[in-house]
Write a structure and sequence with these properties.
single chain, alpha+beta, N-terminal domain of TfIIb, 4-stranded antiparallel sheet, Trm112, protein heterodimerization activity, Trm112-like, Trm112p-domain-containing protein
């Protein structure tokens, strides 16, 4: 299971409701693999509006990866138009582009290349455990756990 998938999952047991059912905690992850994927910055930029940065940061830290910054770069959501001269704007743009590119590569690695093969996800609200086996999270609930 990639962290891009994890970032979209939440607990749907009848005792849980938003916002306490997200993010699921990654625990007992005995097998985590690094599987290379072609870098696609356009895909990442398109996914950014859907991304829950604090949840991704927490999940990556739970897997032992500390490469992402605490806060996403401002360039992910804001345009850089504060420079007073054209030269200053070009310098800022180049620096911002380099910083953005570096963070995009780290984001790419965390979202798409880290794979949890075996482990568990635990709901922070109801403490329901969802196993991950062979890279597939089992989100099925027992009948008594379903909302009616």
């Amino acid at each position: 299971m990639r962290l891009i998938t994890h970032n979209l999952l939440s607990c749907h047991a009848k005792l849980c409701s938003a916002p306490t059912n997200f993010p699921l905690d990654l625990q007992n992850c005995t097998t985590v693999e690094d599987r290379p994927v072609d870098f696609n910055p356009d895909f990442l930029r398109g996914f950014l509006p859907k991304l829950e940065w604090p949840a991704l940061l927490r999940a990556s830290r739970q897997l032992g990866d500390a490469s992402l910054p605490e806060q996403p770069p401002a360039s992910f959501t804001l345009s850089h138009t504060t420079a007073s001269t054209e030269d200053a704007m070009q310098t800022e743009k180049a620096t911002s582009s380099e910083d953005e590119e570096e963070v995009l590569k780290k984001l790419h690695h965390v979202l798409l290349e880290l794979h949890v093969i075996d482990g568990e996800m635990t709901c922070p609200s109801c403490h329901r455990v969802f196993p991950i086996k062979s890279g597939i999270p089992n989100m099925l609930l027992a009948e008594h756990e379903l909302r009616k």
